[in-house]
């Protein structure tokens, strides 16, 4: 029972973190929230701890992908601004 509770806490944390990251999703926060909720609801009856860990791992991978996406988007925007600023002074 204790392991189930700790896994439940991990799942809830993962959901909250993904929800937070979804605010900047290119297709919109509402789109992301709906998709996220559907994926979590689809797996709500999974009881096997190994399967739950596997799903948590998949969710953590998605978090890293989102962070990379946002980082690249910010980097491109900064680079674009920098180059457009330097071109104006030339």
Automatic annotation (TrEMBL):
GO terms for molecular function: enzyme inhibitor activity. InterPro entries: Complex1_LYR_dom, Complex1_LYR_ETFRF1_LYRM5, ETFRF1. Residues 10-63 form the Complex 1 LYR protein domain. GO terms for biological process: negative regulation of oxidative phosphorylation; respiratory electron transport chain. One of its GO terms (cellular component) is mitochondrion. CDD domains: Complex1_LYR_ETFRF1_LYRM5. Belongs to the complex I LYR family. This is Electron transfer flavoprotein regulatory factor 1. The lineage of its organism: Eukaryota, Metazoa, Chordata, Craniata, Vertebrata.
